[in-house]
Design brief:
heterodimer; A: 354 residues; mainly alpha; 15 helices; 71% helix; B: mainly alpha; disordered C terminus
Chain lengths: 354, 349
């Protein structure tokens, strides 16, 4: 087990290296002028100044020199001052957001984390529950209904479903507004008496004992969560359902039934736990679904997170910023995949042998 | 609809066994046993029939686009949606065309008894005709979906085949590269690449299409590699080698045709996904230009009208339905194929 984890951990830097190489390769599709956003906030208008920047930061140098510089930063020969450098956490400047990309991530990440964390509950909980219901009612009407319902969700483009949900629950009914907080609550949250422990509005609201903040934050999260969940339920349902069906046919369950255990205990105590194992394997693709989903969802619900920042950077062709965001997304996914693999090895001993 | 598990209760073969045998024999004789099983399965499952109907309807709409919504010659390119003025306020279905009226289709007056060409499904902000956009957008969707699928499958086939057949360091290298491409969230990566490609290619279908191809081939490569690795050890591959066939011939004539089935399922399931992703990229502003006949582009106008969506519902509902039905059609077919090719189902029969 330890050997497996160590081996898997050793692969991590290699994958990360590959991820940075691919990002850098995409960066090379940009002109040197566009790449100057890695070091300077705005492109000067006169030609001489542009050339000076290109010469200063060596944006014309061979790619391996540029790659190294991109990783560790550019050191000024005279002053010894270091600028840029992904490894130093300097991801360049976002011209669409008018600030350093790393500050932008720090500012907007909590909002996205909050949305993703809350979405995880219905996605996993209801997704698995639907899968189990579907499996124990194999080919009965309820199974068919659940599967048609989730297949429709899977075929729905996130943005269309999000807009429809907004049409019904906001424009028509006025129940759940877009955005992250109401104006009145935003005043409370930014006031000095309110401690920002985690930057997550719901959690901070609870920690400060302000239920109004908690409810307001949650009210703004309902529609994004619903949107994110509905479009990915099909995937988790499918895995749970087929794994559950497979498990239910095993001999040990026949034994359990034969010795007179109630169907409930057979299903939930004996079958359920084993059937859950394969569900862990789609953890990685769930993270992909969330990362991709938040981009579109945040745009539709006008939610100030990483996703909407990425979408804005992309639509204004702020390439260095989008690349920085996708680098971040790649890192998150790589770590998530590592966790999934280790988790799976922990619960399923067969994996460690390979 | 039946996803991965054998469905013993449903009759897979209708009629008497004898009749089936004859029919099967005829089908098998023409297209081979594996294909016969596929065709037969797809045409006997009610849900995949719905899928087939949906997809063929879209193909018909795309084919007859010039008849359904005749283009305005003055615009030159039929993929540019004709616009009725420039007012930002969307107009509801049934509004009469005022300016730059495209030719009225011949069936229109006969069917409706109306002499005036109206905006059948309303107009978006900027007065682009939604009906025209949906009809011609079908062509865009089909082209993009089929093109991306075809190119990614070819890339995947190539990488997977080379990797599996030659093995060694080449295999290691190719698989590491595949893993790196898979280390990115699909849509996010495509969004990024598309944003980078827009200045190089200009706005249009190509930046988003190329971006989706770049980050879409990996599954095929991996699945094919796994299939080939198992097929490589089979007797027929060894026999071919004993007979002195060249590697490339064994690969192309013996191994790939046997390993193609899982790729086929994956591909058919992905056509819908690719089109939805493409639409999402257009919606996010890195796809086609404003006014291009593309479903995601039409929906993107709705972003400015969220407060009055209850009045202007038609700007998302109609293009949304088109996207949903398109995705659903391909997914239903893919689901049925997956059932048919699932080895566990074969045991059931």
């Amino acid at each position: 087990m330890t050997a497996y984890i160590i081996r898997r951990l050793l692969q991590l830097p290699l994958t990360m290296l590959g991820v940075t190489l691919l990002i850098f390769a995409m960066l090379q599709l940009l002109t040197p002028v566009e790449r100057s956003a890695l070091y300077v906030p705005s492109i000067p208008h006169n030609e001489g100044a542009i050339d000076a920047i290109i010469a200063k930061y060596g944006l014309d140098d061979p790619f391996y020199i540029q790659y190294w510089r991109w990783l560790v930063g550019h050191k000024d020969r005279n002053t010894g001052e270091v600028e840029g450098g992904v490894l130093r956490g300097d991801l360049g400047f976002s011209r669409s957001g008018r600030q350093d990309v790393i500050d932008m991530i720090a500012q907007r990440l909590p909002a996205t984390v909050e949305m993703a964390l809350w979405s995880a509950f219905p996605i996993i909980g209801i997704g698995i529950w639907l899968g189990v219901i579907s499996a124990i009612n194999h080919n009965k009407p309820i199974d068919q209904i659940i599967r048609v319902f989730t297949t429709i969700g899977w075929s729905f483009p996130t943005f269309v479903f999000g807009l429809l949900v907004l049409l019904v629950f906001y424009t028509k009914l006025g129940w759940f507004p877009p955005g992250r907080l109401s104006d009145s609550i935003n005043v409370v949250v930014t006031s000095p008496d309110f401690h920002r422990y985690t930057q997550l509005n719901t959690v901070d609201g609870l920690l400060n004992g302000r239920m109004d903040v908690f409810w307001d934050a949650l009210r703004h999260l309902v529609l994004p969560i619903l949107t994110l969940s509905y479009v990915v339920w099909a995937r988790i349902l499918r895995v749970t359902r087929s794994s559950m069906l497979e498990t239910l046919r095993q001999d040990y369950l026949r034994t359990a039934r034969a010795k007179g255990l109630s169907e409930k205990i057979v299903v939930y105590r004996h079958a359920f736990r084993n059937a859950l194992l394969p569900v862990i394997t789609i953890g990685g693709s769930m993270v992909v679904g969330l990362l991709d989903g938040t981009v579109v969802t945040e745009v539709i619900f006008n939610y100030p997170g990483m996703g909407s920042a990425t979408a804005r950077a992309a639509s204004s062709l702020d390439a260095t910023a989008v690349l920085a965001f996708v680098l971040f997304g790649g890192m998150v996914l790589t770590v998530a995949n590592l966790i999934v693999d280790i988790l799976y090895a922990m619960v399923d001993p067969r994996i460690r042998l390979t | 609809m039946n996803k991965t598990v054998p469905n013993e209760n449903k009759p897979q073969f209708k009629g008497t066994p004898g009749a089936n045998l004859r029919e099967l024999g005829k089908l098998e004789a023409t297209i081979g046993p594996e294909w016969a099983r596929l065709v037969r399965g797809v045409f006997t499952n009610p849900l995949s029939i719905v899928g087939l109907i949906l997809v063929s309807s879209f193909i018909l709409i795309a084919t007859f686009a010039p008849v359904l919504a005749p283009p305005l010659d003055a615009l030159g390119d039929p993929y540019l949606i004709p616009r009725d003025g420039y007012s930002p306020e969307p107009k509801p279905p049934g509004t009469v065309w005022q300016r730059d009226i495209p030719p009225i289709p011949f069936w229109y007056t006969a069917v409706t008894g109306n002499e005036q060409w109206v905006h059948l499904l309303g107009t978006t902000s900027g007065q682009f005709d939604i009906y025209y956009g949906i009809v011609w957008g079908t062509r865009t969707a089909l082209f993009v979906g089929v093109f991306i699928t075809a190119v990614t499958v070819v890339i995947g086939l190539f990488v997977g085949a080379v990797s599996a057949y030659y093995g060694g360091w080449l295999d290691d290298l190719l698989m590491r590269i595949t893993e790196i491409f898979m280390a990115f969230p699909f849509l996010l990566a495509a969004l990024t690449l598309s944003a980078i490609l827009v200045p190089l290619f200009g706005r249009g279908i190509w930046p988003a299409t190329i971006a989706l191809v770049c980050f879409g081939w990996m599954t095929y490569a991996r699945v094919l590699r796994a299939e080939i690795l198992s097929a490589k050890e089979r007797d027929y591959a060894l026999a071919a080698r004993v007979l002195g066939a060249k590697d490339s011939r064994i690969l192309a004539r013996h191994i790939v045709p046997n390993a193609i089935y899982p790729i086929l399922v994956l591909a058919s399931m992905r056509v819908g996904d690719y089109v939805l992703s493409f639409a999402a990229l257009s919606f996010l502003g890195v796809g086609t230009d404003i006014g291009y006949a593309d479903w995601g582009q039409i929906v993107s106008f709705a972003r400015d009208w969220i407060l009055s969506l209850d009045i202007h519902w038609y700007i998302i509902v109609y293009p949304g339905i088109a996207l949903l039905l398109f995705g659903l059609g391909w997914n239903l077919i893919g689901d049925a194929l997956r059932d048919i090719l699932d080895p566990r189902l074969r045991k059931g029969n």
